[in-house]
Amino acid sequence: MPARYELSVHWAGDQALEVEDWQRALAADVVVNGSYFESDYTPPTPLRSAGRALGPAGYVSSHGAVVIGPGVGIIDLRGRDVSNALAPYRDAMVSYPLLVAPGGGTRAGGRDDWFANRTFIGIDDRSRIVIATTREGFFALRRLGETLQRSPLVLRVALNLDGGPLASQIVRAGAASGRPRQCRDHRRGRRPRARLPVGPGAAPSSREAADRARRHAPAVTAPPVIVANPAW
């Protein structure tokens, strides 16, 4: 993907845009929901978009970030100053947990009965970018991390993005455009239960767990997002 597409991170402030809105506005081939957001659509994790730092300052992470420009990578933020780690990149998005950590293993934890639709971005052993959204709410986070480590995708690193009822991805194939996938809880009009992913060694009172617990995500909106446009 890096040779054929250019990835970028976008956030629309207090606007609740759907993935179709982003696709129309940016003429994008791919749009996928990004990391988490609060009830007022502000991101609880740091972002960079077009060289501009967004989101909270002084953030501490034990997981990772997708970083863009030059190239595309997923970096490990454990033990690092997050602002300094993101500063060299044009675009970046901090999220959690690391489903496949650099060097192996998973940092996904939490309860094994918390099932939801999941979205993640990964890089395989040939440096190809994988952006995926599950079809159903089948995976708890730990199980997804363990499954990805054994999968034929051969991912050397993978970062979880926001999931649940807003897990959305839209892909343009020629003149046809795929609809975003939505979890059954939204289609049936049921309010989704809260999810609280907690990585190994992270107490439920940690910043990442607290951000995730108090976030209430309106259904089928996707701020912020990761976008792929052809690299002409």
Summarize the structure in words:
With about 230 residues, the chain is of the alpha+beta class. It has one domain (about 5-190, about 205-230). It is about 15% helix and about 30% strand. The chain is built from five helices and 14 strands. It has helices at about 20-25, 80-85, 140-150, 185, 205-215; strands at about 5-10, 30-35, 45-50, 50-55, 65-70, 70-75, 90-95, 100, 120-125, 130-135, 155-160, 170-175, 175, 225-230. The strands form three sheets. The protein has a five-stranded antiparallel beta sheet with strand order 1-14-2-12-13, covered by helices on one side. Strand 5 and strand 6 (about 70-75) form a beta hairpin. The longest helix has 10 residues, at about 140-150. The chain is globular, with a radius of gyration of 16 Å. The two termini are about 15 Å apart. Mean pLDDT is about 75; it is low at about 175-220.
Q: What is the rounded distance between the termini?
A: 13 Å
Helix content: 10-25%
Whole-number count of domains: 1
The secondary-structure element order is: EHEEEEEHEEEEHEEEHHE
Short description:
The chain has five helices and 14 strands. It has helices at 19-26, 82-86, 141-150, 184-187, 207-214, and strands at residues 5-10, 30-33, 47-49, 52-54, 64-68, 72-76, 91-95, 98-100, 119-124, 129-133, 155-160, 169-173, 176-177, 225-230.
Keywords:
single chain, 232 residues, alpha+beta, 5-stranded antiparallel sheet, 5 helices, 14 strands, 15% helix, globular
